[in-house]
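[#protein-structures] MJ: dropping YmaF family protein here for a structure pass
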Amino acid sequence: MPMPDGQHVHFFSGETSYEYGHLHRYQGYTGPAVGQGLAHTHRIRVITTVELGHDHLIDVETGPGIATAGGHVHEFRGVTSISGRPPHSHRFRNVTGPPIPTMYGQAQDAGTQE
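AK: finished. structure tokens for YmaF family protein:
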């Protein structure tokens, strides 16, 4: 599906590493594309699920696009914010879904979540 001016977002979801007897889940939509061609990236900013009375912030920039038969995806990875008792963070790594076109350069019912 053509994307005017390349404007699009990606759905993402996953689980963090298992630390201190638990893990967290996350899901959302990336921010809009920053840059052009496959070299573009997206921002991911989302709060994880609450486990054992706390959550964590994920705030990273994806890697550049990776070509696929259906368009492209982006790898993302990092470490969450520190939270919980004892204070700790979790690692995460995953790949986004395929591009979702947006209208007029604005995500329609999609965007980063906080």
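MJ: nice. The first strand starts at residue 8 and ends at 15.
AK: one more thing. Confidence is low (pLDDT under 50) at residues 105-114.
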